[in-house]
DNA sequence: AACAACCTCAACCGCATCAGA
DNA sequence: GTCTGATGCGGTTGAGGTTGT
């Protein structure tokens, strides 16, 4: 079974078949059938798509393949510094903060929230990138320092000094204004107006928690 | 050249949430 | 209000690739 990598090279991969459903790597023919079916029925009703495509794949598998690989405008290749910076910022602000509180809503939609703000990137890709590159970088150094901003400096002042503060101060601005009040405002940075209600509620709780 | 260790990333799994009956 | 199937998410796996010795 062949599979195409992001750079166009072919890899071979196979998992043992379970039940009567096809599993493992998608073939070019399966991709073609799936794309064709989605072209007819749209990328929404996955149980119908899975049945109509006659791929012997479950709906979840079809959805995953479309979302992570076949979907138009998927951007592949290395993450830019800006993209990496954004991932780190958002993970720092959303992910780690929620690890340390007791609201009980940990990491809900984190990767998809980040992916939504990185056009062409998938949540799976960002998650993989974090696990492979960034979390390791964090472990190695204790802090990040991407695009001139370390996560120590990204921490709300309240975490650093115990004072009340919800702003983040880049260590050096591009304008070269040493020590200027170039404030990173969480409310400006995150526009969640298009998120579904449950996510919006979660973000609201998060922001309320961070500022209380 | 051969082997081992590590890295990458597509795909699967289990669970939570959503939406419609 | 409840039930049930569909959908979406993060965590994890594991085969193939890459790098180091």
Number of helices: 10
Number of strands: 4
Shape: elongated
Strands in their spatial order, largest beta sheet:
1-2
Main sheet makeup: 2 strands, antiparallel
How much of the sequence lies in strands comes to under 5%
Q: Mean pLDDT, nearest integer? A: 64
The SS-based structural class is mainly alpha
Q: Which parts are unreliable, with pLDDT below 50 for 5 consecutive residues or more?
A: 1-19, 96-107, 145-188
Radius of gyration: 21 Å
Helix fraction by DSSP (H/I, runs of at least 4):
40-55%
Distance between the termini: 54 Å
Number of domains: 2
H/E series: EEHHHHHHEEHHHH
Which terms summarize this structure?
mainly alpha; 10 helices; Arc Repressor Mutant, subunit A; disordered N terminus; Myb_dom; elongated; 212 residues; two-stranded antiparallel sheet; two-stranded antiparallel ribbon; nucleus; DNA-binding; R2R3-MYB protein; Myb_TF_plants; 2 domains
Describe the structure in your own words.
It contains 10 helices and 4 strands. A two-stranded antiparallel ribbon has the order 1-2. The chain folds into 2 domains: 2-70, Arc Repressor Mutant, subunit A, CATH 1.10.10; 81-211, no CATH class. A hairpin with a 2-residue loop joins β3 and β4 (149-150). It is mainly alpha-helical. Mean pLDDT is 64; it is low at 1-19, 96-107 and 145-188. Helices cover 50% and strands 5% of the residues. The structure holds a DNA duplex (21 and 21 nucleotides).
């Amino acid at each position: 079974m062949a599979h195409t990598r992001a750079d166009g090279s072919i890899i071979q991969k196979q998992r043992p078949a379970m039940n009567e459903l096809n599993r493992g790597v998608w073939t070019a023919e399966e991709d073609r059938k799936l794309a064709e079916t989605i072209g007819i029925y749209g990328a929404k009703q996955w149980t119908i798509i899975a049945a109509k495509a006659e791929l012997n794949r479950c709906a979840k598998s079809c959805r995953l393949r479309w979302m992570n690989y076949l979907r138009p405008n998927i951007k592949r290749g290395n993450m830019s510094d800006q993209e990496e910076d954004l991932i780190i910022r958002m993970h720092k602000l959303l992910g780690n903060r929620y690890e340390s509180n007791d609201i009980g809503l940990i990491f809900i939609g984190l990767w998809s929230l980040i992916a939504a703000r990185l056009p062409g990137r998938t949540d799976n890709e960002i998650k993989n990138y974090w696990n492979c590159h960034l979390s390791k970088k964090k472990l190695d150094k204790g802090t990040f320092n991407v695009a001139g901003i370390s996560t120590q400096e990204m921490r709300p002042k309240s975490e650093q000094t115990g004072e009340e503060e919800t702003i983040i101060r880049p260590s050096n601005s591009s304008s070269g204004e040493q020590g200027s009040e170039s404030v990173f405002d969480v409310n400006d940075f995150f526009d969640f107006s298009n998120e579904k209600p449950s996510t919006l509620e979660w973000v609201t709780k998060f922001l309320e928690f961070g500022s209380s």
